[in-house]
Design a protein that fits this description.
Number of strands: 29
Radius of gyration: 27 Å
CATH architecture of the largest domain: 2-Layer Sandwich
Number of domains: 4
Mean pLDDT: 89
CATH topology of the largest domain: CbiD-like
CATH class of the largest domain: Alpha Beta
Number of helices: 21
Strand order of the largest sheet: 3-2-1-4-5-12
Shape: globular
Distance between the termini: 44 Å
Protein backbone atom coordinates (compact mmCIF):
# COMPACT_ATOMS: atom_id res chain seq x y z
CA UNK A 1 0.00 0.00 0.00
CA UNK A 2 1.33 3.42 -1.01
CA UNK A 3 0.50 6.79 0.59
CA UNK A 4 1.14 9.89 -1.56
CA UNK A 5 1.37 13.29 0.14
CA UNK A 6 0.28 15.47 -2.77
CA UNK A 7 -1.65 18.58 -3.71
CA UNK A 8 0.91 19.70 -6.32
CA UNK A 9 1.82 19.07 -9.96
CA UNK A 10 4.29 16.48 -8.68
CA UNK A 11 1.50 14.89 -6.64
CA UNK A 12 -0.63 14.40 -9.74
CA UNK A 13 2.37 12.86 -11.51
CA UNK A 14 2.88 10.47 -8.59
CA UNK A 15 -0.79 9.49 -8.68
CA UNK A 16 -0.53 8.75 -12.40
CA UNK A 17 2.41 6.40 -11.80
CA UNK A 18 0.72 4.72 -8.84
CA UNK A 19 -2.40 4.18 -10.93
CA UNK A 20 -0.33 2.15 -13.39
CA UNK A 21 0.28 -0.51 -10.73
CA UNK A 22 -3.40 -1.43 -10.84
CA UNK A 23 -3.42 -1.51 -7.03
CA UNK A 24 -5.20 0.68 -4.49
CA UNK A 25 -3.24 3.59 -3.02
CA UNK A 26 -3.97 6.64 -0.85
CA UNK A 27 -3.59 10.26 -1.96
CA UNK A 28 -3.51 12.80 0.87
CA UNK A 29 -3.99 16.56 0.61
CA UNK A 30 -4.28 19.29 3.18
CA UNK A 31 -7.54 20.70 1.81
CA UNK A 32 -10.50 19.45 -0.16
CA UNK A 33 -9.89 21.75 -3.16
CA UNK A 34 -6.84 19.80 -4.30
CA UNK A 35 -8.65 17.00 -6.08
CA UNK A 36 -6.89 14.43 -8.27
CA UNK A 37 -8.49 12.11 -10.81
CA UNK A 38 -7.46 8.47 -10.34
CA UNK A 39 -8.93 5.05 -10.88
CA UNK A 40 -7.29 3.23 -8.00
CA UNK A 41 -6.59 6.08 -5.58
CA UNK A 42 -8.49 6.81 -2.37
CA UNK A 43 -8.28 10.51 -1.51
CA UNK A 44 -8.01 11.61 2.10
CA UNK A 45 -7.94 15.24 3.29
CA UNK A 46 -6.75 17.16 6.29
CA UNK A 47 -3.31 17.94 7.70
CA UNK A 48 -1.93 15.19 9.94
CA UNK A 49 0.48 15.57 12.82
CA UNK A 50 3.04 12.92 13.78
CA UNK A 51 0.60 10.82 15.80
CA UNK A 52 -2.19 10.95 13.23
CA UNK A 53 0.08 10.10 10.32
CA UNK A 54 1.69 7.25 12.27
CA UNK A 55 -1.69 5.77 13.11
CA UNK A 56 -2.91 6.14 9.52
CA UNK A 57 0.12 4.29 8.18
CA UNK A 58 -0.21 1.51 10.75
CA UNK A 59 -3.93 0.97 10.33
CA UNK A 60 -3.77 0.99 6.52
CA UNK A 61 -0.66 -1.13 6.06
CA UNK A 62 1.36 1.63 4.35
CA UNK A 63 4.65 0.21 3.01
CA UNK A 64 5.85 3.24 1.05
CA UNK A 65 5.50 7.01 1.51
CA UNK A 66 5.76 9.32 -1.49
CA UNK A 67 6.36 12.94 -0.50
CA UNK A 68 5.16 15.03 -3.45
CA UNK A 69 4.15 18.06 -1.39
CA UNK A 70 5.31 21.64 -1.94
CA UNK A 71 9.07 22.07 -1.41
CA UNK A 72 8.39 24.71 1.29
CA UNK A 73 6.11 22.39 3.32
CA UNK A 74 8.86 22.03 5.95
CA UNK A 75 6.61 20.84 8.77
CA UNK A 76 5.17 18.09 6.57
CA UNK A 77 8.63 16.95 5.41
CA UNK A 78 9.79 16.74 9.03
CA UNK A 79 6.69 14.80 10.06
CA UNK A 80 7.10 12.35 7.19
CA UNK A 81 10.76 11.78 8.13
CA UNK A 82 9.85 11.03 11.76
CA UNK A 83 7.06 8.63 10.77
CA UNK A 84 9.39 6.92 8.30
CA UNK A 85 12.02 6.45 11.00
CA UNK A 86 9.49 5.20 13.55
CA UNK A 87 7.83 2.64 11.25
CA UNK A 88 10.77 1.72 9.00
CA UNK A 89 8.81 2.81 5.93
CA UNK A 90 10.92 4.27 3.08
CA UNK A 91 10.19 7.71 1.60
CA UNK A 92 10.48 8.69 -2.05
CA UNK A 93 10.61 12.43 -2.60
CA UNK A 94 9.24 13.59 -5.98
CA UNK A 95 11.31 16.73 -6.27
CA UNK A 96 10.89 19.59 -8.68
CA UNK A 97 13.47 20.46 -11.31
CA UNK A 98 15.27 23.65 -10.34
CA UNK A 99 17.21 25.89 -12.72
CA UNK A 100 20.76 26.75 -11.61
CA UNK A 101 21.05 29.63 -9.17
CA UNK A 102 22.34 32.68 -11.01
CA UNK A 103 23.75 36.03 -9.91
CA UNK A 104 20.86 37.99 -11.40
CA UNK A 105 18.72 36.90 -8.43
CA UNK A 106 19.31 38.02 -4.84
CA UNK A 107 19.20 34.77 -2.85
CA UNK A 108 17.88 34.77 0.72
CA UNK A 109 18.36 32.12 3.44
CA UNK A 110 14.78 32.27 4.69
CA UNK A 111 12.18 34.97 5.26
CA UNK A 112 14.02 36.77 8.08
CA UNK A 113 17.05 37.09 5.81
CA UNK A 114 14.79 38.37 3.01
CA UNK A 115 13.41 41.11 5.29
CA UNK A 116 16.92 42.14 6.36
CA UNK A 117 18.08 42.37 2.75
CA UNK A 118 15.02 44.30 1.57
CA UNK A 119 15.33 46.82 4.40
CA UNK A 120 19.10 47.05 4.02
CA UNK A 121 18.78 47.71 0.27
CA UNK A 122 16.23 50.46 0.84
CA UNK A 123 13.34 48.68 -0.93
CA UNK A 124 10.19 50.68 -0.12
CA UNK A 125 7.66 48.95 -2.37
CA UNK A 126 7.46 45.21 -2.90
CA UNK A 127 5.37 42.69 -4.84
CA UNK A 128 5.42 39.45 -2.86
CA UNK A 129 4.67 36.29 -4.84
CA UNK A 130 5.31 34.01 -1.87
CA UNK A 131 1.70 33.12 -0.98
CA UNK A 132 -0.76 33.88 1.79
CA UNK A 133 0.99 31.66 4.36
CA UNK A 134 4.07 33.90 4.27
CA UNK A 135 2.30 37.15 5.12
CA UNK A 136 3.01 36.78 8.83
CA UNK A 137 6.66 35.90 8.19
CA UNK A 138 7.14 39.19 6.33
CA UNK A 139 5.18 41.38 8.75
CA UNK A 140 8.27 43.29 9.89
CA UNK A 141 8.66 44.52 6.32
CA UNK A 142 5.09 45.39 5.33
CA UNK A 143 4.24 47.14 8.59
CA UNK A 144 6.36 50.11 7.47
CA UNK A 145 6.60 49.73 3.67
CA UNK A 146 4.28 49.48 0.68
CA UNK A 147 3.69 45.81 -0.08
CA UNK A 148 1.33 43.83 -2.28
CA UNK A 149 0.74 40.12 -1.81
CA UNK A 150 -0.52 38.02 -4.71
CA UNK A 151 -2.74 35.21 -3.44
CA UNK A 152 -5.34 32.78 -4.76
CA UNK A 153 -8.76 34.33 -5.31
CA UNK A 154 -10.44 32.36 -2.54
CA UNK A 155 -12.53 33.53 0.41
CA UNK A 156 -10.42 31.57 2.93
CA UNK A 157 -7.19 33.04 1.52
CA UNK A 158 -8.47 36.60 1.89
CA UNK A 159 -9.69 35.86 5.43
CA UNK A 160 -6.29 34.41 6.34
CA UNK A 161 -4.54 37.56 5.09
CA UNK A 162 -6.88 39.87 7.00
CA UNK A 163 -6.58 37.74 10.16
CA UNK A 164 -2.81 38.29 9.97
CA UNK A 165 -3.42 42.03 10.01
CA UNK A 166 -2.75 42.69 6.33
CA UNK A 167 -4.72 45.38 4.48
CA UNK A 168 -7.06 43.65 1.99
CA UNK A 169 -6.70 46.63 -0.37
CA UNK A 170 -3.13 45.51 -1.00
CA UNK A 171 -4.11 41.99 -2.00
CA UNK A 172 -3.90 41.07 -5.67
CA UNK A 173 -5.09 37.81 -7.13
CA UNK A 174 -3.49 35.11 -9.20
CA UNK A 175 -5.01 34.47 -12.64
CA UNK A 176 -3.79 31.62 -14.85
CA UNK A 177 -4.25 33.51 -18.10
CA UNK A 178 -2.52 36.72 -16.99
CA UNK A 179 1.12 37.22 -18.07
CA UNK A 180 3.49 37.82 -15.17
CA UNK A 181 4.56 41.14 -16.71
CA UNK A 182 1.02 42.58 -16.55
CA UNK A 183 0.80 42.81 -12.78
CA UNK A 184 4.37 44.04 -12.41
CA UNK A 185 3.83 46.70 -15.04
CA UNK A 186 0.61 47.83 -13.34
CA UNK A 187 1.98 48.02 -9.76
CA UNK A 188 5.53 49.15 -10.60
CA UNK A 189 7.10 47.67 -7.45
CA UNK A 190 10.67 48.53 -6.55
CA UNK A 191 11.39 44.78 -6.18
CA UNK A 192 9.76 41.36 -6.43
CA UNK A 193 10.03 38.64 -3.78
CA UNK A 194 9.40 35.02 -4.71
CA UNK A 195 10.27 31.50 -3.57
CA UNK A 196 12.64 29.10 -5.27
CA UNK A 197 9.67 27.08 -6.50
CA UNK A 198 11.26 25.25 -9.44
CA UNK A 199 10.15 24.94 -13.04
CA UNK A 200 6.68 23.64 -12.18
CA UNK A 201 6.21 26.57 -9.77
CA UNK A 202 6.79 29.11 -12.52
CA UNK A 203 10.04 30.42 -11.05
CA UNK A 204 11.71 31.06 -14.41
CA UNK A 205 8.68 32.97 -15.72
CA UNK A 206 8.59 35.26 -12.68
CA UNK A 207 12.30 36.04 -12.87
CA UNK A 208 12.16 36.62 -16.64
CA UNK A 209 9.14 38.92 -16.33
CA UNK A 210 10.82 41.03 -13.67
CA UNK A 211 14.08 41.17 -15.63
CA UNK A 212 12.25 42.42 -18.73
CA UNK A 213 11.00 45.37 -16.68
CA UNK A 214 14.27 46.02 -14.88
CA UNK A 215 12.87 44.98 -11.50
CA UNK A 216 15.28 43.19 -9.11
CA UNK A 217 14.19 39.77 -7.81
CA UNK A 218 14.74 38.51 -4.26
CA UNK A 219 14.22 34.76 -3.86
CA UNK A 220 13.92 32.64 -0.72
CA UNK A 221 15.98 29.48 -1.16
CA UNK A 222 14.15 26.18 -0.94
CA UNK A 223 14.66 24.38 2.39
CA UNK A 224 16.88 21.31 2.60
CA UNK A 225 15.09 17.97 2.49
CA UNK A 226 15.75 15.19 5.04
CA UNK A 227 18.81 13.17 3.97
CA UNK A 228 16.92 9.88 4.33
CA UNK A 229 14.54 10.74 1.47
CA UNK A 230 15.14 9.00 -1.87
CA UNK A 231 14.88 11.81 -4.41
CA UNK A 232 13.52 11.46 -7.96
CA UNK A 233 12.61 14.18 -10.46
CA UNK A 234 10.04 12.52 -12.72
CA UNK A 235 7.82 9.58 -13.48
CA UNK A 236 10.54 7.22 -14.76
CA UNK A 237 12.68 7.63 -11.67
CA UNK A 238 9.62 7.25 -9.46
CA UNK A 239 8.62 4.05 -11.19
CA UNK A 240 12.16 2.63 -10.89
CA UNK A 241 12.24 3.32 -7.15
CA UNK A 242 8.79 1.81 -6.60
CA UNK A 243 9.93 -1.28 -8.53
CA UNK A 244 13.00 -1.51 -6.29
CA UNK A 245 11.26 -0.89 -2.96
CA UNK A 246 8.04 -2.83 -3.68
CA UNK A 247 9.01 -5.73 -5.98
CA UNK A 248 6.05 -6.99 -7.99
CA UNK A 249 4.07 -3.79 -7.55
CA UNK A 250 4.13 -3.29 -11.33
CA UNK A 251 3.39 -6.27 -13.61
CA UNK A 252 6.64 -5.61 -15.53
CA UNK A 253 9.90 -3.90 -14.62
CA UNK A 254 11.13 -1.04 -16.79
CA UNK A 255 14.77 -0.81 -17.88
CA UNK A 256 17.39 1.41 -19.50
CA UNK A 257 18.45 1.76 -23.13
CA UNK A 258 22.01 1.19 -24.32
CA UNK A 259 22.10 4.95 -24.95
CA UNK A 260 21.33 5.66 -21.29
CA UNK A 261 23.97 3.17 -20.15
CA UNK A 262 26.56 4.71 -22.48
CA UNK A 263 25.70 8.19 -21.19
CA UNK A 264 26.10 7.10 -17.57
CA UNK A 265 29.38 5.33 -18.33
CA UNK A 266 30.75 8.35 -20.24
CA UNK A 267 29.92 10.76 -17.42
CA UNK A 268 31.37 8.40 -14.80
CA UNK A 269 34.56 8.06 -16.84
CA UNK A 270 34.99 11.83 -17.13
CA UNK A 271 34.29 12.37 -13.43
CA UNK A 272 36.91 9.70 -12.63
CA UNK A 273 39.40 11.41 -14.95
CA UNK A 274 38.79 14.82 -13.35
CA UNK A 275 38.80 13.65 -9.73
CA UNK A 276 41.16 10.68 -9.97
CA UNK A 277 38.60 8.64 -8.02
CA UNK A 278 36.62 5.54 -8.93
CA UNK A 279 32.86 6.06 -9.32
CA UNK A 280 30.33 3.73 -7.70
CA UNK A 281 27.27 5.36 -9.25
CA UNK A 282 26.52 8.31 -11.49
CA UNK A 283 23.61 10.66 -12.15
CA UNK A 284 22.71 11.88 -15.63
CA UNK A 285 19.78 13.37 -17.52
CA UNK A 286 17.53 11.54 -19.96
CA UNK A 287 16.01 13.48 -22.89
CA UNK A 288 12.95 14.73 -20.97
CA UNK A 289 15.26 16.38 -18.42
CA UNK A 290 14.65 13.86 -15.66
CA UNK A 291 17.73 12.96 -13.60
CA UNK A 292 18.45 9.23 -13.28
CA UNK A 293 21.14 7.34 -11.38
CA UNK A 294 22.87 4.12 -12.43
CA UNK A 295 25.48 1.96 -10.66
CA UNK A 296 28.97 1.84 -12.18
CA UNK A 297 30.39 -1.68 -12.29
CA UNK A 298 34.03 -0.77 -12.97
CA UNK A 299 36.26 2.29 -13.27
CA UNK A 300 39.83 2.49 -14.58
CA UNK A 301 41.68 5.82 -14.28
CA UNK A 302 44.78 6.70 -16.28
CA UNK A 303 46.79 9.89 -16.84
CA UNK A 304 44.89 11.32 -19.81
CA UNK A 305 41.97 8.89 -20.03
CA UNK A 306 39.52 6.91 -17.94
CA UNK A 307 37.10 4.08 -18.60
CA UNK A 308 33.84 3.30 -16.83
CA UNK A 309 31.42 0.42 -17.34
CA UNK A 310 27.68 0.05 -16.73
CA UNK A 311 25.78 -3.23 -16.91
CA UNK A 312 22.55 -2.85 -18.85
CA UNK A 313 19.30 -3.76 -17.13
CA UNK A 314 16.51 -3.94 -19.70
CA UNK A 315 13.89 -4.71 -17.06
CA UNK A 316 11.43 -7.37 -18.18
CA UNK A 317 11.85 -6.56 -21.88
CA UNK A 318 13.45 -9.53 -23.72
CA UNK A 319 16.22 -7.39 -25.21
CA UNK A 320 19.28 -9.17 -26.64
CA UNK A 321 21.53 -6.63 -24.89
CA UNK A 322 20.05 -7.24 -21.42
CA UNK A 323 22.90 -7.91 -19.01
CA UNK A 324 25.63 -6.77 -21.41
CA UNK A 325 28.38 -4.38 -20.31
CA UNK A 326 28.56 -0.96 -21.91
CA UNK A 327 32.04 0.57 -21.47
CA UNK A 328 33.08 4.10 -22.39
CA UNK A 329 36.62 5.47 -22.49
CA UNK A 330 37.07 9.23 -22.34
CA UNK A 331 40.40 10.67 -23.49
CA UNK A 332 41.57 14.29 -23.43
CA UNK A 333 41.89 15.73 -26.93
CA UNK A 334 43.52 18.89 -28.27
CA UNK A 335 40.71 19.15 -30.84
CA UNK A 336 37.66 21.02 -29.45
CA UNK A 337 34.36 19.21 -29.10
CA UNK A 338 33.21 15.65 -28.49
CA UNK A 339 34.50 13.01 -30.94
CA UNK A 340 32.84 9.59 -31.04
CA UNK A 341 35.05 6.59 -31.81
CA UNK A 342 34.16 2.96 -32.49
CA UNK A 343 35.10 0.49 -29.77
CA UNK A 344 34.91 -3.30 -29.87
CA UNK A 345 31.40 -4.65 -30.17
CA UNK A 346 29.89 -1.40 -31.45
CA UNK A 347 28.89 -1.38 -35.11
CA UNK A 348 29.99 0.90 -37.91
CA UNK A 349 27.51 2.49 -40.31
CA UNK A 350 28.11 1.62 -43.99
CA UNK A 351 24.87 2.81 -45.64
CA UNK A 352 23.18 6.24 -45.83
CA UNK A 353 19.75 6.90 -44.39
CA UNK A 354 20.33 6.08 -40.72
CA UNK A 355 20.86 9.66 -39.59
CA UNK A 356 24.58 8.93 -39.10
CA UNK A 357 27.29 9.42 -41.71
CA UNK A 358 28.70 6.20 -43.21
CA UNK A 359 31.97 5.29 -41.53
CA UNK A 360 30.82 6.62 -38.14
CA UNK A 361 30.23 4.34 -35.12
CA UNK A 362 26.62 3.24 -34.79
CA UNK A 363 25.76 5.57 -31.93
CA UNK A 364 22.36 7.03 -32.72
CA UNK A 365 21.70 10.80 -32.69
CA UNK A 366 19.82 11.01 -29.40
CA UNK A 367 22.41 8.97 -27.42
CA UNK A 368 25.11 11.19 -28.98
CA UNK A 369 23.23 14.24 -27.74
CA UNK A 370 22.75 12.74 -24.27
CA UNK A 371 26.44 11.87 -23.99
CA UNK A 372 27.52 15.27 -25.27
CA UNK A 373 25.34 17.11 -22.75
CA UNK A 374 26.47 14.83 -19.91
CA UNK A 375 30.13 15.63 -20.65
CA UNK A 376 30.02 19.31 -21.63
CA UNK A 377 28.21 20.27 -18.42
CA UNK A 378 31.34 19.32 -16.45
CA UNK A 379 34.18 19.90 -18.96
CA UNK A 380 34.51 22.33 -21.87
CA UNK A 381 37.61 20.91 -23.57
CA UNK A 382 37.99 18.40 -26.38
CA UNK A 383 37.29 14.73 -25.68
CA UNK A 384 37.53 11.45 -27.60
CA UNK A 385 34.71 9.14 -26.56
CA UNK A 386 35.06 5.43 -27.37
CA UNK A 387 32.03 3.22 -26.72
CA UNK A 388 32.55 -0.54 -26.45
CA UNK A 389 30.26 -3.52 -25.82
CA UNK A 390 32.11 -6.80 -25.20
CA UNK A 391 30.61 -9.61 -27.34
CA UNK A 392 28.59 -6.99 -29.19
CA UNK A 393 29.54 -8.45 -32.56
CA UNK A 394 27.90 -11.78 -31.67
CA UNK A 395 24.85 -10.02 -30.19
CA UNK A 396 24.44 -8.02 -33.41
CA UNK A 397 23.77 -11.20 -35.36
CA UNK A 398 20.50 -11.52 -33.43
CA UNK A 399 19.40 -8.03 -34.51
CA UNK A 400 18.57 -6.36 -37.83
CA UNK A 401 21.93 -4.56 -37.92
CA UNK A 402 23.40 -6.71 -40.73
CA UNK A 403 20.39 -5.93 -42.92
CA UNK A 404 20.74 -2.20 -42.15
CA UNK A 405 24.38 -2.20 -43.20
CA UNK A 406 25.76 -1.84 -39.68
CA UNK A 407 28.81 -4.06 -39.35
CA UNK A 408 31.03 -5.09 -36.47
CA UNK A 409 28.59 -4.90 -33.58
CA UNK A 410 25.42 -3.53 -32.06
CA UNK A 411 23.98 -0.01 -32.19
CA UNK A 412 23.82 2.34 -29.22
CA UNK A 413 20.17 3.34 -29.36
CA UNK A 414 17.23 4.75 -27.44
CA UNK A 415 15.07 7.86 -27.81
CA UNK A 416 13.89 8.22 -24.20
CA UNK A 417 16.65 6.51 -22.21
CA UNK A 418 14.05 4.17 -20.73
CA UNK A 419 12.99 0.69 -21.88
CA UNK A 420 9.30 0.02 -21.39
CA UNK A 421 8.67 -3.73 -21.78
CA UNK A 422 6.50 -4.34 -24.83
CA UNK A 423 6.61 -8.09 -25.15
CA UNK A 424 4.20 -9.80 -22.81
CA UNK A 425 0.55 -10.18 -21.88
CA UNK A 426 1.28 -8.19 -18.75
CA UNK A 427 2.07 -5.12 -20.83
CA UNK A 428 -1.26 -5.40 -22.64
CA UNK A 429 -2.94 -5.63 -19.25
CA UNK A 430 -1.07 -2.48 -18.21
CA UNK A 431 -2.48 -0.73 -21.30
CA UNK A 432 -5.96 -1.84 -20.26
CA UNK A 433 -5.53 -0.33 -16.80
CA UNK A 434 -4.39 2.99 -18.26
CA UNK A 435 -7.35 3.08 -20.65
CA UNK A 436 -9.66 2.30 -17.75
CA UNK A 437 -8.21 5.32 -15.92
CA UNK A 438 -8.92 7.46 -18.99
CA UNK A 439 -12.56 6.35 -18.81
CA UNK A 440 -12.74 6.83 -15.05
CA UNK A 441 -11.62 10.47 -15.18
CA UNK A 442 -14.22 11.24 -17.86
CA UNK A 443 -11.87 12.18 -20.69
CA UNK A 444 -13.77 13.01 -23.88
CA UNK A 445 -11.23 11.23 -26.06
CA UNK A 446 -8.57 8.51 -25.77
CA UNK A 447 -5.30 9.42 -27.49
CA UNK A 448 -2.94 6.51 -28.11
CA UNK A 449 0.69 6.87 -29.20
CA UNK A 450 3.66 4.58 -29.66
CA UNK A 451 5.76 6.50 -27.13
CA UNK A 452 6.78 9.79 -25.57
CA UNK A 453 8.03 11.38 -28.78
CA UNK A 454 4.82 11.02 -30.79
CA UNK A 455 2.78 11.85 -27.69
CA UNK A 456 4.57 15.18 -27.34
CA UNK A 457 3.54 16.18 -30.86
CA UNK A 458 -0.06 15.01 -30.53
CA UNK A 459 -0.58 16.67 -27.14
CA UNK A 460 -0.32 20.00 -28.95
CA UNK A 461 -3.41 19.01 -30.94
CA UNK A 462 -5.40 18.24 -27.79
CA UNK A 463 -4.10 20.71 -25.15
CA UNK A 464 -7.26 20.54 -23.04
CA UNK A 465 -7.30 16.78 -22.47
CA UNK A 466 -6.18 15.50 -19.03
CA UNK A 467 -2.88 13.57 -18.90
CA UNK A 468 -4.77 10.32 -18.27
CA UNK A 469 -6.23 10.56 -21.79
CA UNK A 470 -2.81 9.83 -23.33
CA UNK A 471 -1.78 6.16 -23.38
CA UNK A 472 1.20 4.44 -25.00
CA UNK A 473 0.40 1.39 -27.13
CA UNK A 474 4.05 0.52 -27.71
CA UNK A 475 3.63 -1.96 -30.53
CA UNK A 476 0.22 -3.33 -29.56
CA UNK A 477 -2.03 -1.25 -31.80
CA UNK A 478 -4.60 -3.98 -32.35
CA UNK A 479 -4.85 -4.93 -28.68
CA UNK A 480 -5.19 -1.28 -27.63
CA UNK A 481 -8.02 -0.63 -30.09
CA UNK A 482 -9.79 -3.80 -28.93
CA UNK A 483 -9.52 -2.58 -25.33
CA UNK A 484 -11.00 0.79 -26.37
CA UNK A 485 -13.87 -0.99 -28.09
CA UNK A 486 -14.42 -3.25 -25.08
CA UNK A 487 -14.64 -0.18 -22.82
CA UNK A 488 -17.03 1.49 -25.29
CA UNK A 489 -14.88 4.55 -25.94
CA UNK A 490 -16.47 6.61 -28.71
CA UNK A 491 -13.61 8.92 -29.73
CA UNK A 492 -10.08 7.57 -30.24
CA UNK A 493 -7.08 9.30 -31.82
CA UNK A 494 -3.96 7.37 -32.74
CA UNK A 495 -0.61 9.06 -33.35
CA UNK A 496 1.74 7.00 -35.49
CA UNK A 497 5.12 7.66 -37.06
CA UNK A 498 6.04 6.39 -40.49
CA UNK A 499 8.04 3.33 -39.37
CA UNK A 500 5.05 1.77 -37.64
CA UNK A 501 2.59 3.26 -40.12
CA UNK A 502 3.93 1.32 -43.14
CA UNK A 503 3.75 -1.93 -41.13
CA UNK A 504 0.24 -1.09 -39.95
CA UNK A 505 -0.81 -0.18 -43.50
CA UNK A 506 0.12 -3.71 -44.56
CA UNK A 507 -1.94 -5.19 -41.74
CA UNK A 508 0.57 -5.67 -38.90
CA UNK A 509 -1.43 -4.78 -35.80
CA UNK A 510 1.61 -5.66 -33.68
CA UNK A 511 4.51 -3.66 -35.05
CA UNK A 512 7.36 -5.11 -32.97
CA UNK A 513 10.55 -5.52 -35.02
CA UNK A 514 10.87 -9.11 -33.83
CA UNK A 515 7.79 -9.94 -35.88
CA UNK A 516 9.19 -8.57 -39.12
CA UNK A 517 10.88 -5.69 -40.88
CA UNK A 518 9.58 -3.18 -43.36
CA UNK A 519 8.32 -4.77 -46.60
CA UNK A 520 10.04 -2.80 -49.37
CA UNK A 521 7.74 -4.16 -52.09
CA UNK A 522 4.69 -2.97 -50.16
CA UNK A 523 6.30 0.42 -49.46
CA UNK A 524 6.97 0.86 -53.17
CA UNK A 525 3.34 0.03 -53.89
CA UNK A 526 2.25 2.79 -51.44
CA UNK A 527 4.48 5.28 -53.25
CA UNK A 528 3.12 4.19 -56.64
CA UNK A 529 -0.51 4.42 -55.42
CA UNK A 530 0.24 8.01 -54.39
CA UNK A 531 0.81 8.87 -58.09
CA UNK A 532 4.51 9.52 -57.50
CA UNK A 533 6.78 9.26 -60.58
CA UNK A 534 8.56 5.97 -61.16
CA UNK A 535 11.89 7.58 -60.23
CA UNK A 536 10.49 8.08 -56.72
CA UNK A 537 9.34 4.46 -56.61
CA UNK A 538 12.85 3.39 -57.64
CA UNK A 539 14.35 5.58 -54.91
CA UNK A 540 12.00 4.04 -52.36
CA UNK A 541 13.34 0.59 -53.21
CA UNK A 542 16.77 1.63 -51.90
CA UNK A 543 15.75 3.09 -48.54
CA UNK A 544 17.11 1.63 -45.32
CA UNK A 545 14.58 3.09 -42.90
CA UNK A 546 10.96 4.10 -43.42
CA UNK A 547 11.66 7.65 -42.28
CA UNK A 548 13.74 8.11 -45.46
CA UNK A 549 10.41 8.32 -47.29
CA UNK A 550 9.94 11.86 -46.00
CA UNK A 551 13.06 12.85 -47.93
CA UNK A 552 12.43 11.05 -51.22
CA UNK A 553 8.71 11.77 -51.70
CA UNK A 554 8.53 15.21 -53.38
CA UNK A 555 6.68 17.91 -51.38
CA UNK A 556 3.91 18.10 -53.96
CA UNK A 557 3.12 14.41 -53.41
CA UNK A 558 3.33 14.32 -49.61
CA UNK A 559 -0.39 14.92 -49.08
CA UNK A 560 -1.32 12.16 -51.53
CA UNK A 561 1.25 9.81 -50.01
CA UNK A 562 0.02 10.47 -46.47
CA UNK A 563 -3.62 9.91 -47.48
CA UNK A 564 -2.67 6.62 -49.10
CA UNK A 565 -0.85 5.37 -46.01
CA UNK A 566 -3.66 6.52 -43.70
CA UNK A 567 -6.31 4.90 -45.89
CA UNK A 568 -4.59 1.52 -45.61
CA UNK A 569 -4.16 1.98 -41.85
CA UNK A 570 -7.86 2.78 -41.42
CA UNK A 571 -8.85 -0.30 -43.41
CA UNK A 572 -7.18 -2.51 -40.80
CA UNK A 573 -7.98 -0.48 -37.68
CA UNK A 574 -11.54 0.80 -38.14
CA UNK A 575 -13.13 -2.67 -37.88
CA UNK A 576 -11.61 -3.03 -34.41
CA UNK A 577 -13.58 0.00 -33.20
CA UNK A 578 -17.04 -0.68 -34.71
CA UNK A 579 -18.98 1.64 -32.39
CA UNK A 580 -16.44 4.46 -32.23
CA UNK A 581 -14.67 6.98 -34.43
CA UNK A 582 -10.95 6.58 -35.03
CA UNK A 583 -8.73 9.49 -36.06
CA UNK A 584 -5.22 8.54 -37.20
CA UNK A 585 -2.51 11.20 -37.25
CA UNK A 586 0.62 10.46 -39.28
CA UNK A 587 3.63 12.28 -37.79
CA UNK A 588 6.88 13.04 -39.58
CA UNK A 589 10.34 13.39 -38.03
CA UNK A 590 9.88 17.13 -37.43
CA UNK A 591 6.55 16.71 -35.69
CA UNK A 592 4.39 17.78 -38.63
CA UNK A 593 1.03 16.01 -38.64
CA UNK A 594 -0.77 14.72 -41.72
Amino acid sequence: MILILGGTTEGRLAAKVADQTGKTFYYSTRGERQQVDTRNGIQVTGAKDFGELTEFCRSNGIRLLIDAAHPFAVRLHDTVEKVSSMLGVPVIRVERVYPPRTDDVIWCDGYDDAVERLLGDGIESLLALTGVQTIGKLKRYWMNNRCWFRILDREESVKSAVDQGFDSDNLVFYHNDEPEESLMRELKPQAVLTKESGLSGGFVGKVSAAASLGIPVYAVKRPELPSSFITVTGEHGLRKQIERLLPGCFPLRSGYTTGACATAAARAALLALITGEEQSDVSFSIPDGEVMTLPVSRTIVGKDSATASVVKDAGDDPDVTDGCTVSVSVTLSKTPGIHFLQGCGVGRVTLPGLGIEPGEPAINPIPRKMITEALTTIYDGGLDVTVSVPHGEELAQRTFNPKLGIVGGISIIGTSGIVIPFSSEAFVEAIRREVEVCVAVGASRLVINSGARSERFVKAVYPDLPPQAFVHYGNYIGETLRIAADLKIRQVTMGVMIGKAVKLAEGSLDTHSKLGTMNIDFVCSLVRQSSCPERVVAAARNITLARDLWNIVPPEYLESFSKTVLSHCHSHCDPLLPDGTLTILLIDEEGRIY
